[in-house]
């Protein structure tokens, strides 16, 4: 896909997320790798609902801002993810309601914040580890994400929200949508209890739908 097409896609998909309540105001950020190296990221304090393809922030492979508006303060986190997981082509960081609510719950399992209640959660995400709280833009957050990225396509930032990757921006967004749906189901079921997939069922899914 050309850079022009990627810019248009980022704006269109961001608008879709905004209209469905996955991001409000200037919250959240998206990025995608560019064919010639480096990546595009949403500008700081920008709304997913009003992005302009021409003013998206462009960074080189070292994370230096080379074009467009000033990048999100979380650009360093995106760079860390790309460097740690070369197969990633797009990254989504949202403040979506259900996942952000889960990120504030006590007693979460650090290695997997959500139980395996649907096959699609296992197929698209696998496990969702918890990243300890860091203030937005903290360099420690980027380091924590980089440490998990080689073995996890998504993670949940404590008291903050999800960071989700994919082979492309479109795939990253689909993964994030599935993750938000899983969190919503989890919160609905929480007062009632839930039936989870068995270890053998999970192993079968992992074998059949192995992720890169």
From TrEMBL:
UniProt KW Heme keyword: no
GO CC annotations, alphabetized: cytosol
SUPFAM superfamilies assigned: AraD/HMP-PK domain-like (SSF53639)
Cross-referenced InterPro entries: Aldolase_class_II_sugar_metab, Aldolase_II/adducin_N, Aldolase_II/adducin_N_sf, OtnC
UniProt entry keywords in alphabetical sequence: Carbohydrate metabolism, Lyase, Metal-binding, Zinc
Enzyme class: lyase
A Pfam family reported for this protein in Swiss-Prot or TrEMBL: Aldolase_II
Keyword Transmembrane helix belongs to the record: no
Catalytic activity line of the entry: 3-dehydro-4-O-phospho-D-erythronate + H(+) = dihydroxyacetone phosphate + CO2; 3-dehydro-4-O-phospho-L-erythronate + H(+) = dihydroxyacetone phosphate + CO2
Domain Class II aldolase/adducin N-terminal: 8-187
Cofactor: Zn(2+)
The organism's place on the tree of life at top rank: Bacteria
Any one GO BP annotation for this protein: pentose catabolic process
Function recorded in the entry: Catalyzes the decarboxylation of 3-oxo-tetronate 4-phosphate to dihydroxyacetone phosphate (DHAP) and CO(2).
Family from the record: Belongs to the aldolase class II family. AraD/FucA subfamily.
NCBIfam families: OxoTetrPhDc, PRK08130.1
Listed name of the protein: 3-oxo-tetronate 4-phosphate decarboxylase
């Amino acid at each position: 896909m050309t850079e022009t097409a990627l810019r248009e896609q980022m704006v269109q998909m961001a608008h879709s997320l905004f209209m469905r309540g996955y991001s409000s105001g200037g919250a959240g950020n998206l990025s995608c790798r560019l064919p010639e190296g480096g990546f595009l990221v949403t500008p700081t304090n920008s709304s997913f609902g009003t992005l302009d393809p021409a003013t998206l922030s462009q960074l080189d492979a070292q994370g230096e801002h080379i074009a467009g508006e000033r990048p999100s303060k979380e650009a360093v986190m995106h760079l860390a993810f790309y460097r740690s997981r070369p197969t990633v082509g797009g990254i989504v960081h949202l403040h979506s309601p259900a996942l952000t609510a889960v990120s504030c719950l006590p007693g979460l399992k650090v290695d997997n914040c959500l139980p395996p209640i649907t096959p699609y959660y296992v197929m698209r995400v696998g496990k969702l580890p918890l990243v300890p709280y860091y203030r937005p833009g903290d360099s420690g957050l980027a380091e924590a994400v980089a440490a998990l990225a080689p073995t996890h396509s998504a993670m949940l930032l404590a008291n903050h929200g999800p960071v989700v990757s994919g082979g492309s921006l479109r795939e990253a967004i689909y993964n994030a949508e599935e993750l938000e749906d899983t969190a919503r189901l989890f919160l609905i079921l929480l007062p009632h209890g839930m039936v989870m997939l068995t270890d053998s069922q999970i192993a079968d899914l992992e074998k059949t739908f192995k992720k890169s």
